């Protein structure tokens, strides 16, 4: 039976307590752990990235098609996969340490994105995550060997649907260091305020809005503050001082509009919210599993574990020969 057939059969089968059936977990293990290049099977960092991709696929496709399936956190889903996938079962006793090291590694992966400004340099585009209430500039983690500006173009396109490849200047950016993580945001000015925005990923962005810079507050002492309108700006505020200095030293394409709205404008909302200017659809676009595999490239092996790829290769040979 093919993986597609297995998935189709399990998506409608009755479930107990919302736990995915073994057939579905076996299919996810086959797709995302077994049938990958050998170099992606050499460390727990890489294995956990593969499990994370399987988690995205499960939440975005399996749960959506069968609401009786339970949603899981990444840690819960990792435990499910390790306990159900034969090649991962030997490492179940170490799963807490493996997951802890994985999350520690992820915060060290560099992040890039873009600060999109309107034609008057009075507004910027902010996105709100699917979960929580914090806003940020569109950005995300770099893939392995990916250039900073290439990552920024990809992440902005995925989170807003807007292609900045012809507008980005590799020398115009603001860079901050947060603990072990470097965050670089390229400044992209002169974008028309009637530009249509809509994310290309599912369940990642819940809202996109033009926000006025004069309503966003920079860091005050050691506190990363909220905006004057109550917006949570933990990953926005640290960049505002440098951004305002940049705006002051650059001439905007057009002068400020006297009739411009005094507040921020929401231009895209998910979950059935009313559309804003420039938004013709509220349907979050469908993506393939490969389009979610981004910004979280594999790195070097963990310090305390050595992953044995032999069982995986043997399992693949058995699958192909059967």
Automatic annotation (TrEMBL):
A molecular function (GO) term: RNA binding
One Pfam family here: NUDIX
Listed Gene3D superfamilies: Dcp2, box A domain, Nucleoside Triphosphate Pyrophosphohydrolase
Cofactor: Mn(2+)
Cellular compartment(s): Cytoplasm
Polar residues composition-biased segments: 278-291
Coiled-coil regions, chain positions: none
GO CC field: cytoplasm
Region (Disordered): 278-300
Residues covered by the Nudix hydrolase domain: 107-236
UniProtKB keywords: Cytoplasm, Hydrolase, Manganese, Metal-binding, RNA-binding
GO terms for biological process, alphabetical: deadenylation-dependent decapping of nuclear-transcribed mRNA; nuclear-transcribed mRNA catabolic process, nonsense-mediated decay
Family stated for the protein in its record: Belongs to the Nudix hydrolase family. DCP2 subfamily.
Name under which the protein is recorded: Nudix hydrolase domain-containing protein
Taxonomic source organism: Centaurea solstitialis
Lineage of producing organism: Eukaryota, Viridiplantae, Streptophyta, Embryophyta, Tracheophyta
